[in-house]
Automatic annotation (TrEMBL):
Organism: Rhynchophorus ferrugineus (Red palm weevil)
InterPro entries from the UniProt entry: Longin-like_dom_sf (IPR011012), Sedlin (IPR006722), TRAPPC2L (IPR044760)
Pfam families found in the cross-reference section: Sedlin_N
GO-annotated cellular components: perinuclear region of cytoplasm
Name listed for the protein in its UniProt record: Trafficking protein particle complex subunit 2-like protein
Chief localization: cytoplasm
Family label: Belongs to the TRAPP small subunits family. Sedlin subfamily.
Keywords: ER-Golgi transport, Transport
Location relative to the cell: Cytoplasm, Perinuclear region
Keyword Transport: yes
One example of a Gene Ontology biological process annotation: endoplasmic reticulum to Golgi vesicle-mediated transport
Gene3D superfamilies: 3.30.450.70
Record carries keyword Zinc-finger: no
Length: 136
């Protein structure tokens, strides 16, 4: 389904990054971090207020499509999808974002998690990989 997922804090600092293929992680980090400008543009006050958390497709490249989702606390979730995957629909991407959001909420509810710190939990990483590959 998806090839990469990222969680970025409200101050645009990376909190979590997960790729199906670890060899391409640096390339995807660049794509994810460059999409933050588009998210900020969509959230800017001059544009109509967006009550929808799902931002939809942020931009499309030759091989990848990048989708965004923002929580009420300005935590950003970003998913990178292979452009050749024509079977993936918009409602399936929304569902992936909802599942990732639920996993994130469970993670930050953990009393041992320090707010603002990067997420390093192996269980969380495994859960996110299962969500983006569609094995949940």
């Amino acid at each position: 389904m998806a090839v990469c997922a990222a969680i970025v804090g409200k101050d645009n600092s990376p909190k979590f990054f997960c790729c199906v293929n670890p060899d391409e992680e640096l390339n995807f980090q660049y794509k994810v971090l460059s999409s933050l400008d588009i998210i900020e543009e969509k959230l800017s006050p001059g544009i109509k207020p967006n009550t929808e958390m799902y931002l939809g497709i942020l931009y499309s490249l030759e091989n990848w499509k990048i989708y965004g989702y923002v929580t009420n606390t300005k935590i950003k979730f970003i998913i990178v999808v292979d452009s050749s995957n024509l079977t993936l629909r918009d409602n399936e991407i929304r569902s992936m974002f909802r599942k990732i959001h639920a996993e994130y909420a469970d993670m930050v509810s953990n009393p041992f998690y320090i707010p603002g710190e990067p997420i390093t939990s192996k269980t969380f990483t495994c859960s996110i990989k299962n969500i983006i590959t569609g094995t949940v």
